[in-house]
Write a structure and sequence with these properties.
single chain, mainly beta, five-stranded mixed beta barrel, 1 helix
């Protein structure tokens, strides 16, 4: 029987990513994001609940997270739930629940407080090669590069 372990979250970073490196030299970015749910109770009072999620990326996506993500930024994350279990010094068994991310997209406007953005999610795909989604020209756009936009000349060093 097939099984699925897939998580999709959209939330705001609670702190800047913490960077560390594995003995192999591979980057690891750890951060947490908050997701907030709002509803009205039976009496019509507004209720709110915020959940915090530990996120961890490894590889090239971790490097991108460390360089571009900042506290408070909205971010889209896809990954899987992972449980790390260990026994502490006192002999107590501990469990840490985290999301092992494999896809990240910064949300918000490029000029606004939401940080970077763009329409292409950064997908590590399990290796170190960036895999941005293919961008489609808007409907009615000239075919074959008939007229270049000012944005076509825009050059930046963001890897997605």
């Amino acid at each position: 029987m097939a099984s699925v372990n897939r998580v999709t979250l959209i939330g705001n970073l609670g702190r800047d990513p913490e960077m560390r490196y594995l003995p192999s030299g591979e980057a690891v970015a750890s951060f947490s994001i908050a997701t907030t749910e709002q509803w009205k109770d039976k009496q019509g009072n507004k209720q709110e609940r915020t959940d915090w999620h530990r996120i961890e990326f490894i590889g090239r996506t971790a490097e991108v997270c460390g360089e571009y993500l900042k506290k408070g930024m909205p971010v889209y994350v896809e990954g899987r739930i992972q449980y790390d279990k260990w026994t502490d010094k006192e002999g107590q068994e501990k469990t840490l629940t985290k999301i092992r991310g494999d896809r990240m997209q910064m949300l918000g406007s490029k000029g606004g407080g939401g940080g970077g953005g763009g329409d292409a999610p950064y997908d590590d795909g399990g290796d170190s090669a960036p895999r941005p989604s293919a961008a489609r020209p808007p409907a009615g756009a000239p075919a074959g590069g008939a007229k270049k936009s000012k944005l076509d000349d825009f050059d930046d060093d963001i890897p997605f």
